[in-house]
Design a protein that fits this description.
The complex is a heterodimer of chains A (277) and B (269).
Chain A lengths: L14 H4 L8 E9 L5 E10 L2 E6 L6 H8 L7 E6 L2 E2 L7 H4 L2 E4 L11 H11 L7 H11 L15 H13 L5 E5 L7 H14 L4 E5 L3 H7 L2 E6 L2 E6 L1 H7 L9 H10 L10
Parallel strand pairs in A: 3-8, 3-9, 6-7, 7-8
Antiparallel strand pairs in A: 1-2, 1-4, 4-5, 9-10
Helix pairs in contact in A: 4-5, 4-6, 5-6, 9-10
Chain B lengths: L7 H8 L7 H13 L1 H14 L1 H20 L20 H19 L8 H5 L3 H9 L8 H6 L5 H26 L3 H22 L1 H23 L11 H17 L12
Classes of the chains: A alpha/beta (277), B mainly alpha (269).
Chain lengths: 277, 269
């Protein structure tokens, strides 16, 4: 039937895609404690369950957002409590190799190699993420196209603007088609039009991926997220839809939009002492 | 291949929309076309010659696609592969190490040294440590956090980078040692022991810090007394070899026992 070097047609859905999942939540934490540095407990007794969708992680600086995302990326070990990712315990001392292949992670400080081209960098990351060799070129091309950098793919990264570098960071995070996608402040450095595009991409990814986006911009949450997680001092303050968050605020609370008023209402509850800022 | 191909009747019927073919024939032709270039070419010839409606539809689709394809960069062929062994930011370090070896060698050969002491012998054990530090260090590798979070992170990647550093440094030292008549056994074992110790200590306090500590210890315990007394320290003579071997085994043991430390961000900042 076949002639010489024909490509074998690949089916659109692999066995792994069709297999039923063995977990109820992509991310599940109970009483999670994670240390930042030697002493400070940045995440302190957090209970959280996240499924498919876009989850906005909100909170003031120092609330433990970055530490939580690092723990979810398995680069920080929990100091207490349990953390289950895709049904697998992320505590323990193993390297979580199989689990990490299904996680995409963009750190807050996204470091890159200035002399690499966009394609080389994303390809290098695909290699680090153990994407099968035969699939690397296509996966890289797809990731680069999704963040709208196909026309700059062969330029060196030092020639890119800050917003474009950020998009390369998102491309490397999605190159392995992750089931859990962790983005720490992905909108930093993007101009308004790029932020709109990113929100669309997030909504698109959120249909079949568990996306966790940390941000301190409340309007990002309103536009892109199906779910808001509000953290303060390492604990969960609120989890619900953006509408629930808006409903929590009244006219007496600080803020220019319903969401901002809800945010300040939940963070400055009675009995809390805070500085002027 | 001499496998069967679709008959002219089937191809023609398919090109005309498949209405005069049985459903299972359409299905079989389609499945065959997906895998057979010869029959696809026959199909396109048939369409071009006999079915102008389909031909013009294909042309319209192509003319819509072409401007999009023109701006999409295609993968350049025969590109160099990005570094798998060393990160680009580390590459200058082994080069520096080779440079230091060469200058030590020149000083030795010029006879401006310190009596019977060979400079190559004095610097050889600590040089790879610098390269190893550069290849697995939070400060020097901008993509450190990304690398550590990847599935491939961990001991195999650390060893791969260490091996590439040693691969660059050891030949340079061998050449230097041969030119000055220092036997390889005298420095190779301390050199490997120091490398293992850097990785072992690095798992606890960070590789950069470990390298700095070990280099300082080396300078204080071996280099300073040697330069002061102008004779090779006892540790570097053949009698010291068992001790170096022990240090090497210890270091390797600690590295293996603590291999998980290389796939998490340490508490050290």
């Amino acid at each position: 039937m076949t002639t010489g070097k024909e490509h074998r047609m690949t089916s659109a859905a692999s066995a792994a895609d069709l297999a039923p999942t063995a977990y109820a939540w992509e991310i599940r934490a109970t009483g999670l404690k994670v240390r930042a540095g030697r002493r400070r407990m940045a995440v302190d007794g957090l209970d959280l369950a996240l499924g498919t969708g876009v989850h906005g992680l909100l909170g003031p600086n120092g609330a433990g957002k970055t530490t939580l995302i690092r723990a979810l990326a398995t680069v920080l070990r929990p100091a207490g409590g349990t953390l289950e990712l895709l049904g697998e315990s992320a505590g323990g001392r193993s390297g979580h190799r199989a689990l990490r292949r299904r996680i995409g992670y963009l750190p807050q400080e996204f470091g890159y190699y200035r002399r690499f081209t966009v394609r080389e960098f994303v390809e290098y990351m695909a290699w680090l993420k153990e994407v099968p060799k035969a699939e690397v070129p296509a996966a890289v091309q797809r990731a680069v196209e999704r963040v709208g950098l196909a026309d700059r793919a062969d330029e060196r990264m030092k020639a890119l603007s800050g917003g474009m570098v950020r998009r390369v960071g998102i491309a490397q995070a999605i190159v392995n088609d992750p089931v859990i996608l962790l983005l720490d402040e992905p909108t930093a450095g993007l101009d308004p039009a790029q932020r709109l595009r990113l929100r669309k991409l997030l909504q698109e990814l959120g249909t079949d991926t568990c996306v966790v986006v940390s941000t301190h911009l409340v309007e990002d949450v309103a536009a892109a997220c199906t779910d808001v997680v509000l953290l303060d001092e390492g604990r969960l303050v609120f989890q619900g839809t953006p509408d629930d968050l808006a409903a929590a605020g009244g006219p007496g609370h600080m803020g220019d939009s319903p969401l901002e008023r809800g945010y300040s209402a939940l963070l400055r509850g009675p009995g809390r002492e805070r500085g002027a800022w | 291949m001499t496998a069967e191909h679709a008959s002219a009747r089937l191809i023609e019927g398919y090109a005309r929309g498949g209405t005069d073919l049985a459903a299972d024939e359409v299905w079989a032709v389609e499945a065959h076309l997906e895998a057979c270039r010869v029959c696809r070419d026959r199909l396109s010839a048939t369409v071009g010659a006999e079915v102008p409606a389909v031909a013009s539809l294909v042309d319209t689709v192509w003319s819509g696609l072409e401007p999009l394809l023109a701006v999409t960069a295609t993968m350049p062929r025969g590109r160099r592969r990005p570094a798998r062994w060393l990160t680009p930011t580390t590459a200058p370090w082994p080069a520096m190490v080779v440079g230091v070896t060469l200058s030590a060698l020149l000083l030795d050969l010029a006879g401006t040294g310190f009596g019977e002491v060979s400079l190559v012998l004095l610097v050889a054990p600590v040089l790879p440590v610098l390269g190893v530090a550069a290849s697995w260090s939070r400060g020097l590798d901008p993509a450190y956090e990304l690398t550590v979070s990847a599935p491939r992170a961990g001991l195999p990647l650390v060893l791969r980078r260490t091996a590439s550093v040693l691969g660059a440094v050891v030949p340079a030292l061998l050449a230097g040692g041969w030119a000055t008549g220092v036997s390889a056994a005298q420095w190779l074992l301390p050199c490997l022991a120091f490398t293992a110790a850097t990785l072992a200590l690095g798992g606890a306090v960070g590789v950069t810090r470990a390298a700095a500590v070990l280099a300082a210890v080396w300078a204080a315990v071996i280099v300073a007394p040697t330069l002061a007394t102008s004779r090779t320290a006892a540790a570097l003579q053949t009698g010291g070899l068992p001790a170096w071997g022990l240090l090497l085994v210890l270091g390797v043991g600690v590295v293996i026992a603590r291999r998980d430390a290389y796939s998490v961000l340490g508490a050290h900042r």
